[in-house]
Design goal:
heterodimer, A: alpha+beta, Aldehyde Oxidoreductase, domain 3, Aldehyde Oxidoreductase, domain 4, 3 domains, 19 helices, about 25% helix, globular, disordered N terminus, B: alpha+beta, Uridine Diphospho-n-acetylenolpyruvylglucosamine Reductase, domain 3, Enolase-like, domain 1, 5-stranded antiparallel beta sheet, 4-stranded antiparallel beta sheet, binds flavin-adenine dinucleotide
Chain lengths: ~775, ~280
Amino acid sequence: MKVPDLGTTLTTSTKFKVVDTSVPKVDGYALVKGKTVFTDDFNIPNALVVKILRSPHAHAIIRFVDASEALALEGVVCVLTHKDVPRVAYTRAGQGYPEPSPYDTFVLDKKVRYVGDAVAIVAAETEEIANRALKLIKVEYEVLPAVLDYEHASDDGMPVIHDEPEISGAYDPSRNIASHYEMHIEDVDKELAKCDVVVEGTYYTPNPSHAMMEPHTAISYFDPNGRLTIISSTQVPYHVRRIIRHIFGVESRVIKPRIGGGFGGKQAIHVEAYVTAVTLKTGRPARCVYTREETMTATNTRHAMRFKVRVGASKDGKLRVIDMDGLSNTGAYGEHALTTFMVAGSKTLPLYNKVKAVRFKGDVVYTNIEPAGAFRGYGAPQSMFALDSALDELAYKLGMDPIDFKLKNSIREGETSPVFRMMGEGREGVEQIIQSCKIEECALAGAKLFNWYEKKKRPKVKGTKARGCGVAFAMQGSSIPAIDMGGATIKMNDDGTFNLMIGATDLGTGSDTILAQIAAEALHTTTDKFIVYSSDTDVTPFDKGAYASSTTYVSGNATKRAAERMAQEILKAASEIMDKPIEELHLEDGKVISESGHSITYSEIQTKLFYSFKQRQLEVTESFVSEVSPPPYMVSFAEVEIDLETGKVDVLNFLSYVDCGTPINPKLARGQVEGATVQGIGMVLYEEHVFDKNGRMVTNDFFTYKIPSRKDVKNIKVEFAKSYEPTGPFGAKSVSEIGLDTPAPAIANAIFDAVGIRVKKLPIKSEDIFFALKNMAKSL
Amino acid sequence: MDFVFMIPNTEEELKTQLSEPGSFLMTGGTDLLVKVRIGKIKPKRVVSTIRIPTLHFLKDKIDEIVIGATITYSELMDFKPLIKNFPLLYDAIYTVGSPQIRNRGTLVGNVVNASPAGDGLLALYLLNAKIEISDGSVVPVEEFVTGPGQTALPSGEYVRAIHIPKYDWSVHYFEKVGQRNSMTISIASVGWLIRCKNRIIDEFRIAYGSVAPTVLRLRDVEEFAKGKHIDEDFTHSISKMVEERVHPIDDVRGSAKYRKILCANLVYRMIEEGTKC
Ligand SMILES: Cc1cc2nc3c(=O)[nH]c(=O)nc-3n(C[C@H](O)[C@H](O)[C@H](O)COP(=O)(O)OP(=O)(O)OC[C@H]3O[C@@H](n4cnc5c(N)ncnc54)[C@H](O)[C@@H]3O)c2cc1C
């Protein structure tokens, strides 16, 4: 294995000035003060309001659309149907090109494939008129039978959801199979026969919504020179630009302002195509802000998955087999279908690299519900629930403490797993040897801090309440190796500040801040000297976007490289100005200092370079693409209390011990893990979409779809292991997704510890626990 | 969603403005505005009560407290005689929504909204509260609420205040079971009041929320309880009676079966809670 050559960037120094400190977010004040920062805050004069007419049927052919009454309404400017937009197949997925997702989507189609699918685009002078127009459009549908149960989506005789001839990249659309994947190492059946203890189970995870605060929003307009400009609340501005060109054949500029959360929900193009269609048709600016109902019902959810798991071990606690047979529900369209399924394997299996035989296979199927897409964790939370729960059960059957069992079989520094090479995202992966892995510290220090061993010894039941503890292990990745690229530009100003221009998309995560910290560290100055601008496809360099836990690692490395080259440029200029050899100069506190004690500030250097001396603008651009994807690691401990009279579960304590390399900004890193824990608690205990028999989502608002509230989150603790990833910027790995991998298994394992019930289906409802308790009491 | 919004300053103005057809009263708006937004009601005009000084009062009398129509939950929770005399009501309204909702929402709104899940309403049922209407009549809350979302309020009239008679209870209990811990619509809720000595019941009241079209007072269970000793046998028999009397439905929150057994099970909290006499 080749360690990427980062030249002088490789440093193991852990004495940092700016990195590893919790500087305030560069955009924090603007956000809390309610400044005009979000897409919908942009006041583009004369903009039309765009609304989408959506299908009331789960599966239907559009016979015809009569928009004459709507068009007759004063203030309605256009109504576009499938006849008015290019018939170009594409995928909504914002991924590297060519995308591994099937091209199965049209801006508008003759067929609708779920309740909420787009039928027509309406543009009007005001929102009220647009809403009235929606009601005046008459659509005649030929309603088709729908596929609503994903476990039967590819049964014989099921209606075919994607029968359009243009579809490409799908595995077997005639059987509603969007993607298929299988791999194996050795023979699982043979190895299972040799095991002393075997555990089998079928696990289900649902399709929660991202529930980000800001709904999907986009504005499009022609700038004075006729260049199409799109402002969008997107995680992937460069992919939006590329997909818009693919569909409409137009060049555009995509601007991403502040984003009110995404969690993967904005790693797809949703609204941009609709406003673009209107601007191209009318020449006028167009604005579309999704309602909460649209955000819930007509964007993306997580992929619901089912895993049939078999794991086996020998008496001595050696894990010998992991066999996972999966089924994933991608809904009406296949954005991220194959890759989320592969990540379900590639970001879980290498954790247990001591195992002899592994198999991972399954289908991703189409159904007539809202399409699933990218969602924090990207398949790993689904499969980790299954795998970790099964391993916990195996440890229990072996009579081992789950911490001992999981530690005994998990990966360490200097080791590898064949899975790294076999499974990538939509294709083969890359080989890598793990250079930083503190999972042992995470498990042991975590257990101590959590009082694991004492808590395990306590009596479980007290009065009408039972308590229990669970532990879960996780890994993730840092970027998609050999695919994800990010760039950074640094420009020096005559006041000693720098413009840091990045394509990386801060969606509330704080990446603008940590990238400024990385640049400040490398340039021996402070974060406040950086004016961060992200992202604008006409101004900032390319970046793949915010996903796959890549920004800190990929965009961070690009920023570090750029800052280091800028440091060289500054030294070179100073050497000329001061007439001293570079070797005698070094950078310190925003100055160049010579061995003889002379110094010149950055401000003085650039001022001279502007006006009087070898005149030039100092500016550098660097980019980075990684050959590896170093995993962060984490061990989480949950303590739950169950009310035996109602079945209600409360998560009393949740501790996560994380190895994310150097946390560039500990407070923001902690925020990532805390946020993911809360989102995880939601996925485990509350969040469930309910559909009626016609496939309409009933839980389409926050009244019916419950995410955790402050009172549901008792005591969350996050600790960081001392760790340094040599390939990362100042030792950093990712921390954004991993926090969602552990809550489900940790809580489920804790419930087992408390009451002896193995919950294999999320969300875990009071009612299910209650009846399981009743059945247990009966059979005693 | 177009309507005229009016904020009268006196009860006379209120009466006149309310006489217009299509008018809706609003106090905190935490129920009304939700219904307007989802299109369940389409008002022509919304008349707010919140600037009328004569509706904004709290009275602590010898035998009752009187709560004016525009008193918010937050104001009520700060009203010392409430915690002292009606800890049950305090416990119930403490669970309503969130601080933001309690800063706007009112008990009167909760009563007129007449939801079987109304938390304040459940407490008022147990406390035999009376509703004072603008025509001068005073009606027991159980007669005032006639069905889900329905009341006996004559058209053109409004609620002026709520009267709650004082009474000494030895034990009070309120619990709301929801999947989530706040801002939740309960799967079921329960409350009881017990007057007892040496664990012998002198007087007993019990009510359930979210398991029937209106809040449900179980009078025959209350009668049965009189003179009984609070022990396991007693809770067991009550539990059985409860299971037969509640009629929950299947919905997003839980199955009817679960909710029925849940109601029966909640009675067992009495063993722990009911030892205080
Ligand atoms: C997020 C959220 C959470 C909630 N959580 C809970 C909860 O946990 N428990 C609970 O019980 N409720 C809850 N509610 C419902 C609501 O807050 C309560 O029912 C509240 O008491 C309503 O009071 P209000 O003053 O806001 O009523 P409004 O919305 O102003 O009015 C409610 C009804 O009463 C009528 N009305 C108002 N004033 C008068 C008057 N003086 N005379 C006659 N009619 C009048 C209105 O026309 C309307 O029909 C919640 C609501 C929200 C939005």
